[in-house]
Amino acid sequence: MRIIQDQPQQQRQHFSCASKGFTLIEILVVMVVIAILVTLAVPSYKAQRRRAEKVVCISQMRVLHTAFDNYMADQKRWPQMPGGIFESPEETDFWKWWILTMEPYGGGESFWLCPSDKVQKESKDEYNGSYLPTQFDAHHHTPYRWGNQPWLLERGNFHLKGAHVMMPDGSIHNSIDIYR
To answer: So where are the chain's domains?
Structure first.
């Protein structure tokens, strides 16, 4: 049996080439679908990043709680800042004293700055921090005397639900919810 070819050779080649590619409309549809998926994914990515920064922040505050506990077990008192620190116009002196005092007890420089706090160091000799320690007297029971007196306060509302507050038992709360 013989197959009869009705179409000229040129038409068959044109038809076979067209079936191998995509039309402009197909490409545009794919691009629109990708754009929609990207617009849905980007806000979710930002929210996940904020949650991850919050978890790191809480973890760092817990490390600092352990450092304060270690210091008090060793020194039998809360760290006492020298009076001249508050007379200095430079904030870096305040942070340098806290960081260097707590470093031997596990509270090094990397734990004092919340990842959501976008403070930039201008030099390697500059010290910054996100967590403000409470000033207690030198008596060894004072930091534990009041259960609702925080040990550390986050210096800003970096997580948009109130600043974090670290209590004597090591628990972390939002400043908005703490006394409800």
So the answer is: 56-174
